[in-house]
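Reading is simple: each integer encodes one residue's backbone shape. An example follows:

___
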Amino acid sequence: MATILIVEDDALLLDALTGQLKQLDYGVSTASSVAQAMALLQAQAVDGIILDLGLPGADGMELLVWARARITGLPVLILTARDGVDDRVLGLNAGADDYITKPFNMQELQARLQAMLRRARQPAFTQASSAAGVASTTIGPLVLDHASHAAALNGDLLELTQREWELLELLAHRCGEVVTRDDVLAAWRASPPEPGQTAAPLNSNALEVYVHRLRKKLDASPLNIRNIRGLGYMLAKP
């Protein structure tokens, strides 16, 4: 069972979040200030943080920087009323794994939290299938050979670039589940660049291009890469 630290000074919201996460079988610890959160993190281990920024005494960003310097790989989701683009960029650049603004949808928060924790457990998705000893994956007419990084559709080999293969492998590995944009971008950044593409930007715009290419290559099949609004993509089971 994963344990989440909620750092929030709004007592009503803190109670609501605590109740929701406990219903989902998370362990929950709480703090209402940066000082309390720091003391708790020094005393016990947690698997992730939901962090408000507008806290009494010290800004939540101080806790983010402090935690990043001391606890390697601890996932942090910022939940704040600060909805400016500059605030988002600042939070993500400081090391937050995700950023949600208030008011928010509880189901979206739950999905993003689950995705964040999943990424923390799977830092490099390209090793997932081989590490599990899986030689190939079959989804309807699609067959992926993980050893050779090759995919065939209806028996015909697909021409895939390295990034297209990595994206397809992740979607297939989690077929029927939402794969967030951050999942893909983080894994791409952890893998070697494509030949001749050492300076290629890895961002949401690039991801849209690769998704469009894969969709075209899967056109002749019942497989569908769905766009899950606000979250990411999902390879729907045929």
